[in-house]
Design brief:
Number of helices: 12
Number of strands: 10
Largest sheet: 10 strands, mixed
CATH superfamily of the largest domain: Bordetella uptake gene, domain 1
Distance between the termini: 64 Å
Radius of gyration: 22 Å
Number of domains: 2
């Protein structure tokens, strides 16, 4: 009899829990939603916020907190109430930080849950116009003929540009020397001026210089060609299939957010990204939209962290 009462109470408790969560999800959202943005542009957050607000008739606020390379923004969302009203515009900075900075105030994998991968950002290999390298083969030959003589700039240690260049060094068996800068702008300036000979950069940061013939693009590190630079081949096409990396942006929520709300957010983001006018805005900002499930994003995140751990260990990469 006692066991029966325990079973009845357990089942009843589960039904109450389930009913509450379903009701909560159906009622969601009924107050303003906040998208917290860490490092990088807030363009994608504003595109999403406008459309979500239109569809749901609910204010969506974009809250930019770029301090500490995304740690402040990530911590704020990780510690927020898991109710779907606080979202993180996540980026490649978070997977990188999770590998390079083990003592963060939050655990990116355990404390935050992926909702949707919304866009990827191709990384472009650009060289100084005076460098005698028209393609990757030329660059590799030049680097091997003059070991240690070529330098590449980046926006700092542990950035996507730095990691991509080290991936390139390993895959091509060359030794191009890293020169870290405090930000992307001085790195671009010195590549144009010839103080460093090349750099890997997220595409939007160097597109104006490529179009203005101030830098020459010789490759992209994505799996396919970049729509805004259709004549620039991938590194894969040029013989190095292991050089695949790029920036990305997605949406994360606190880990204990009810799955019904996570799926409702994913469905809404999928709907928005499927609109031709939204895809045009995303591409105009230099990104390439990505439409997928929460499971797709979970797999992407997991694989990204595995690859980064391997790269960081083999290249002995450390942050300042």
């Amino acid at each position: 009899m006692f066991k029966m009462r325990v079973l009845i109470h357990t089942v009843f408790g589960f039904l109450v829990f389930l009913t509450t969560h379903i009701s909560f999800a159906e009622d969601y959202p009924n107050k303003p939603i906040r998208i917290i943005v860490g490092p990088g542009t807030d363009a994608l957050a504003r595109i999403l916020s406008e459309k979500i607000s239109e569809d749901w008739g609910n204010p969506v606020i974009v809250d930019v907190r770029p301090a500490a390379g995304g740690i402040v923004a990530g911590d704020a969302v990780a510690k927020a109430a898991p109710d779907g009203y606080t979202l993180l515009l996540s980026s490649s900075a978070y997977t990188i930080n999770s590998v390079l900075q083990p003592k963060l105030p939050f655990d990116f994998v355990k404390d935050l849950k992926p909702v949707s991968l919304i866009a990827t950002i191709p990384i472009v290999l650009v060289v100084n116009n005076e460098l005698a390298a028209q393609n990757v083969k030329d660059l590799v030959s030049l680097a091997k003929s003059k070991p240690g003589a070529l330098n590449y700039g980046s926006s700092g240690n542990g950035t996507p540009a730095h990691l991509t260049a080290e991936m390139f060094n390993q895959a091509t068996n060359v030794s191009i020397v890293h020169v870290p800068y405090k930000g992307i702008a001085p790195s671009v300036t010195d590549t144009i001026g010839g103080q460093v000979q090349l750099m890997f950069s997220v595409a939007p940061s160097v597109l104006p210089m490529i179009r203005g013939n101030k830098l020459r693009a010789i490759a992209v590190t994505s799996t396919k060609r970049y729509k805004l630079l259709p004549d620039v081949p991938t590194v894969i096409e040029q013989g190095y299939p292991d050089v695949v990396y790029g920036g990305w942006n997605g949406i994360h929520v606190p880990a204990k957010t009810p799955p019904e709300i996570v799926q409702k957010l994913n469905a809404e983001i999928t709907k928005i990204l499927s609109l031709p006018e939204v895809q045009a805005k995303v591409e105009a900002a230099g990104f390439e939209s990505f439409i997928g499930t929460t499971s797709d994003f979970e797999s992407f995140e997991s694989n990204e962290i595995i690859r980064l751990k391997k790269l960081v260990k083999s290249a002995n990469i450390k942050i300042d």
